[in-house]
Amino acid sequence: MESLSQLFYLHGIGYEYTKYNGEHVVFSNATRSKALQCCGVDVTDQAQVDHLNVLLDANKWLQLVPSCSLVNAEQPAVKVRVDSRMLAQDCTVSFSSVNLPTVTHSLAALDCSGDYVFNGITYLELVFPLPSLPIGYVDAHVQVADIIQHTQLWVTPRHCYQVSDKKQSGLSIQLYSLKNKADLGVGDFADLLALVQQSAQQQLDYILLNPLHLLFCEQPERASPYSPNSRALLNPLYIAIDLCVDSSNNPALERYLHSHAAKEFKQRIQDLRYIDYSAVNQFKYAAFKLLYQHFQTYGSEQRKQHFADFCKLHEATLSTLKVTDTEFANYLQWQAHVQLKQCQISAREHGMSIGLINDLAVGCAGDGSEFLNQQSLFTDSAYVGAPPDPWAEQGQNWGLPALNPIKLSDNNFSYYKALIRANMENVGGLRIDHVMAIRRLWWCFENQQQQDGCYVYYPFEHLLAVLAIESHLNECIVIGEDLGVVPPEVKTALADKAIFSNGLFYFEKDNQGEFLTAQSFPSQSLLMIANHDVPPFFGWWQGLDLTLRLKYQLIDEQQLAQLQTERDIEKQRLLRFLSSCEAHSLTQHSDASDVYHAVTLGLAHAPAKLFTIQLDDLDEQTLPVNIPGTDQEYPNWRRVLTHSSEHILTRHSALLNAIHSIRTN
């Protein structure tokens, strides 16, 4: 049992946690064993357990250097592990990916940072100073006597990339929900381009997007951007047909867009409150085919070379596509990248300091191309979820396959590096959904026909280093969505790396349940009133989210009455929050618009460097885009805005000007 306990630790299988109600929970050996079994370990095979213990522990000390070495960019050094009997030898480090001279030091002259005894031999960890190195990944060879080993030096900056110390403001949107100018039923990059220019005129600094990940074109009603086909690829439905070069002088496309079928389609989707993804998908993909055919026939040599260059640069991610027509799928990815880049360039040219902020989902679907192409890195039958809470006493299973923390390090974490790099491309910021995933995730699995689960820990330092390095290489700020119970070491590490936390006003309360004052929010944070997982403010103030939960049988009449009483208490607390900002005459019966304006202006004074206004709230939406805990019951990820973005921003220009004035004074 002792060797199995050691393997639990070395494999990152958690031992205990504190439940939402303060209860101290210790995971059973059966639960922890199930987690190991999901990683392909036979816990009844003592020989395999002993072998893995040596592989994950002692073997690290039997190599001069690991396959990748974390290096502090400000005080560059690599840690070398040697048999203590070799101290009379010299150690040499040579570089193959940067033009720097070879460095040699005597082992005896190096500082010791640790030791390990194995089979009676003492191994020492020595700190080998290095010359100044560029931030990024540097290939190096380390030699002691006749032993030569390669390592990839991860030269890590002290902080993630930063744009400005000034307080900034921006919008958060669901791109698909924008009123589409082309009347094709779903917001696209042309709508985003227009919103960028309108936002810049209102002196906003950024637009926070929903995940733009590739979904399932063969199953268009699978609309959740947080359960994607692939997180390294873009959703072609966001391609704006009229922004494509191949839409010009394209008679076949013109005939299609003005055909009887097109008129029928537009009539079918006209004024729909929810997106008909099946109809939109069918219509747009037919148009995409005509764009692609025109490119094949009439595309210039220069454009075809640009396409070839794109395919070569993105070969690794494009190769994961599971499609019958690879060239067509690659063409759509090219067009999506071109248009996203166009939006970011426009944002910067119009004076937005950050521009677009992308959103990275915590996982991928178990039948998508990302999972199928990287299946060896994932567990068998373990899924990402959340521990028990007051709303789900059995815990939550999100149905997203869990990555094996040991396998994640394969090929110097190439999978994770590529994933982060892909999501930082052509944007100025990246929000990481459920950022606790870089430290620990709750795994769910079936155990004797009942839901079971535990926390599993990931190689935190390495994943954090990737974020810091890639943020500088891509000039991209990083935001970690840290809502809920977050381990203290995660909060500290995120702050140390200048990663923005994500405050949600609804959830930010003191021990008495009172809303925190505006001055309580830390400087290095992104503050917003609401997001995609909670009701928009107008629905919340009017209690419409509660009656909606009753409608979909998520609560009963008795629970509704209790929740309505609690909501009245919450509204009183909100009014007390407003009193801490300035004197007001608002009451529980005040118009939602008046209360929203007061809350927004009150929070604008917060020290948080990033203050985000939800476009849904400016449009006075009452229905949520998503109700957690539902799938097909409620039309999640489909609700569209009532007005055009131009109308919304023009109508609220006075409020936006007031926010800008507060934030810049």
From TrEMBL:
Keyword terms: Carbohydrate metabolism, Glycosyltransferase, Transferase
Name of a matching Pfam family: Glyco_hydro_77
Catalytic activity field: Transfers a segment of a (1->4)-alpha-D-glucan to a new position in an acceptor, which may be glucose or a (1->4)-alpha-D-glucan
GO MF term (any one): 4-alpha-glucanotransferase activity
Gene3D superfamilies: Glycosidases
SUPFAM superfamilies the UniProt entry points to: (Trans)glycosidases (SSF51445)
Enzyme Commission identifier(s): 2.4.1.25
PANTHER family in UniProt: 4-ALPHA-GLUCANOTRANSFERASE DPE1, CHLOROPLASTIC/AMYLOPLASTIC (PTHR32438), 4-ALPHA-GLUCANOTRANSFERASE DPE1, CHLOROPLASTIC_AMYLOPLASTIC (PTHR32438:SF5)
Family the UniProt entry places it in: Belongs to the disproportionating enzyme family.
Protein name (Swiss-Prot/TrEMBL): 4-alpha-glucanotransferase
Species, as recorded: Pseudoalteromonas haloplanktis (Alteromonas haloplanktis)
